Amino acid sequence: MKRNIFLYAFLLFLLPSFQVNLFAQKITLSGTVFSENNEPLPFVFIIPNDQVHLGKLTRFNGKFEFELENPIEKLTLFHPDYKSKSIATAQLKKPLNIKLEYFPDQATAKENYNSEKVLGIVRNIIDKKELNVVYKNQPFKYDAYNKIKGELFISDDSYQEKENLKKRDLKYLDYYTEQKDNYLFLIESFTEREFKRTNRDKEKVIKVRSSGLEDDFITSLLSSFKPITLYENYINFSGNRVNCPLNKDNMRMYDFVLRSMNKILEKEIYIIDFFPKEKFQKDPSHYLSGTIFIDVSSFKLLAFYIQNNNDIDDRNVEIIQKNSFIKKDTIFPTHVFLKIKLPDFPSKYVGTSIIKDSYISKINLNPEFETLKEKLDFDMVVFDNYIDSTHNAFWDIKRKDSLSKKEELTYINSYKDSADDSLIKKWYKLGKAFYKDQLAVDLLGINLNNLFSLNQYEGLRLGMGLTTTEKISKTVSLGGYGAYGFRDKNWKFGGNFNIYLKKSKENYFQVKTMFDLEEPGSQHFFGQSDDFFRKIMTERMDKYRLSGISFYNGFINNTNAEISLSSYWREPTYEYLYAPEADTDSLTTPQRFKSTDLSIKLRYSVDGNFYVGKRQLLTFGKTFPVLYVNFTKGLDGVLGGNYNYTKYSFKINYSFFVGNYGQSDVTIEYGSMNSNLPYPMLFNGRGGKSTLSGIIVKDVFQTMDIYGFVSNNYFNIYYQHNFGSLMFNKGRFRPEFGFALNAGWGQLNLENPEEIHQRIEISDYSRGYYETGLLVNNLLKAKILGLVKGGLGIGIFYNFGYYAQPKIYDNMAFRITYLVRGI
Q: What is the predicted pLDDT for the residue at 419?
């Protein structure tokens, strides 16, 4: 189906309601308008019996419905890209199915291509930005009815010509045949949104009805699709940062075509197409194509349609947004439509389409927030008290469209079969398991991060971790794990007992114990796990025995927190002697270092996106900057602890775009302690070079030996910039060039560290460690299930400065780079 079928004027949105006698007997006539390709055709203006004031537009699904007192004998259909058509209703079967022939007015489009008239109109629209985006400039409240559904479709019909199809392809083709009469899933929700300012709003889910995915994990689907604006410099769209057309700086990048100007009743509307200029089409993924609908008298943006221009990824994303007059001079979004087509997921021949509709009503500008709690200080979706409702009376009131036959069948089939063997439930269960690192199997959950790991000390490590699920108890859980290293030939184990507070599983007390291994000098920030490829390099380990109690708070104004009191000992498995006193004759190895610590860990996101559920808190996507803070106080004499010290460290991650010249990632680290502790308790120098280093590790020095330096005070900064495909932006081969610059300073406050830390090489990097690198990403690219994009590249890093080696080659490190991007 050609793009233009989406583009006809949202003229009906501007028409006044026509009052009729509610007590008169009405005659109903309904149907669907299709294109030549048998696809539903939205925005066709239909006039019954030549009565223009009763005209209606077909909906996004091509459907229309009239309820009139008099019989409807004639329908006249208008669309700027299709031949107008008049039909006698008596000639057609009920419900009506009408086809229109594609016939765009090319002459008019060519005449108005980048004309002074159309460019003047666009400039006027841009000048009235503040009047067109009130939903970004002032507080508001509204209600929203939301519907999201997914379905399979045949994305490549060449399978019919192939004799031997793969088993996987046959499986999904069969599943498509089974599911084509109903949707994979269907979810309806009713929400209330309160907005204070950008990234400071709350949406509360009131009621939900779904086709079987009854779980708080789907909360991101329940909330309304928030309105977007085309006036910003950039918006995130279809996995890319794209330049918006209605912006003074970006206008030069687009061609504009005045396609038509229609007049119905008292309203005149400009219809303007836009698409990137030819010289910018070399990298089309950073630009949009679409149509805007403008009120002639006020230059207000009444509606727009946009789609992605990504010719590398086959996915197609479309958004339609309708704005309505809520006051004489004020417009506000009242309908937002999103459609995503993934032609390669789940197989080569069968794709998945996801459609989301949000209808907005009861809009209240500049509302009075009743309590201090309602004066929002974060961005969140709350679904901790919603009702699963199947009562048709409620949904009949809230729905803007009655359910189609296919939607009704989706609910019916869901209720008939509640088993977990459907394909969509398997996808959902697998995705949830990877997100939460836990696969729920009836009464127990399997912790995925305990199953498998690799490092140079243990070699292959296999294990099993189990946790009780809510089917046993919603207020407490019991968990444990065991693991075995095939190189060190030792078992490790641990256990925990959790008591959950209130409703959320993110607020709880935990009692835990463990006997395991820990790398010397390692740090663990809240919510961050160790890099898999960095763990492979690990060759030094301490035996580690810990017992403690912790309190976790999942959400306080964009902040996650952990407060813990723990008692532990560490015992090096390598040659090391800690001798803080002059007399070392009485010391034996291995030494055991005992400590009792009170620690606080914080994670703060400036613009956090939180989904607060009945039993959990979820975060989707990353927002920047993100701050991590660790504070530890050693308690000498408490529970056998032998060290009195204070240690603190912080880490900041920040990612940002530099105009159209790519994306930069910056990480800053700082740490300090006020006491000289044993080697296992100092700060590691963050090296990433070892005999097994080959794949790039984020936020380490690629040319620094993994145990080359140690410190009790340090400051590191890592900077990396990816220019994207600016240099190679034609064809499917589009490597992405980038560079890196890392620097660090670490100090060990000892005059003769070798006297205190014996039998091990130890030094700091107080004179500054510097390295730079050149990266070529995405040389090799692949898709995983058509849903996730992956790319491999190469990088070369070079160490310079005081700690540079005499031989040039010894200062170099070669790395394989990787990029993983979702939809």
A: 47
